[in-house]
Task: structure prediction
Amino acid sequence: MGFNIVLSSPSGAGKTTITKKISQKYPNIKISISHTTRKPRPNEIDGVDYHFVSNNEFEKLIKKNNFYEHAKIFDNYYGTSKNSVNKLHEENYDVIFDIDWQGTKQLSKYKELNLIKIFILPPNKKELKKRLINRNQDNNQTVEKRLKQFENDVLHWFDYDYVVINNDLESCFSQIEKIIEGHKKEKMSFI
Result:
């Protein structure tokens, strides 16, 4: 079984950017590409950013027990396919999951995944609002919804092995790299 890292954060705290930076720096770490019913953003590609599916397709996959985890967030489903994660492990890749606390709770039930769970927080709510507005992906109503959700999201930090504050992207990335490197060394000492 490969190395499995979970990155979670309130929306807008930087987990997706950091996930992509990790996969670019470490060719042996592949991103678990989630299924979603949300519409693609202009810069997103099906099969690269997400597997975009209809509500009906997603519900069929739930009934077939095809997900390690799934949740409904902001009126859209998101889920991690067992098949795609298992395929990455068969190809000897380590896997990084860009998921929320709900998904992490479900994924944690699969002890064989040996998860390293990292929760990323913004320095404060004011900074989070600025980031959500600056990324220019959501309308004002969605930004407010995400800010309201922040209060609930931060209550779940204790479910994680590490909590990292994203004051500065490079510093946050460096802290997460140290966590990964530490676990890789630990894993190598058992081989």
About this structure: The chain has one domain: 4-189. DSSP finds seven helices and nine strands in the chain.
